[in-house]
Write a structure and sequence with these properties.
This protein is an all-alpha fold. It has 3 helices and no strands. The longest helix has 29 residues, at 2-30. The radius of gyration is 24 Å and the shape is rod-shaped. The N and C termini lie far apart (80 Å).
Length: 105
């Protein structure tokens, strides 16, 4: 009985740790394409597409925790994009001189 309880606790805590590390990893990977909140969702979809992962209880636990994290990270991804928006400098248009030609800025 104690072994069963200990096994369940280890599975939950281990699943939480693995989900956190994997979510953080794909978040940082997808920062490169400026859509970090899509990383956990795409990994969840990929893991669900593999039939063998549906039978493993540990992988199901990790997927559950990743889904919770992915929902929380949706808003954070939008805020991250706003904070890290690439600002392009606005080019000033050249003023025309007296003859009507535009001078370079």
């Amino acid at each position: 009985m104690l072994t069963l309880l200990l096994n369940g606790v280890i599975e939950v805590i281990g699943g939480l740790i693995v989900a956190a590390l994997v979510t953080l990893g794909v978040w940082n990977l997808f920062k490169l394409v400026r859509w970090p909140e899509l990383g956990p969702w795409l990994l969840i979809g990929l893991l669900l597409a593999i039939p063998e992962t549906r039978r493993d209880h540990f992988v199901q636990t990790v997927l559950l925790f990743m889904a919770f994290a992915a929902v929380v990270l949706i808003g954070e991804g939008h805020e991250w994009r706003e904070r890290n928006r690439v600002h392009r400098p606005v080019r000033k248009q050249a003023e025309p001189d007296k003859s009507g030609r535009r001078l370079s800025a």
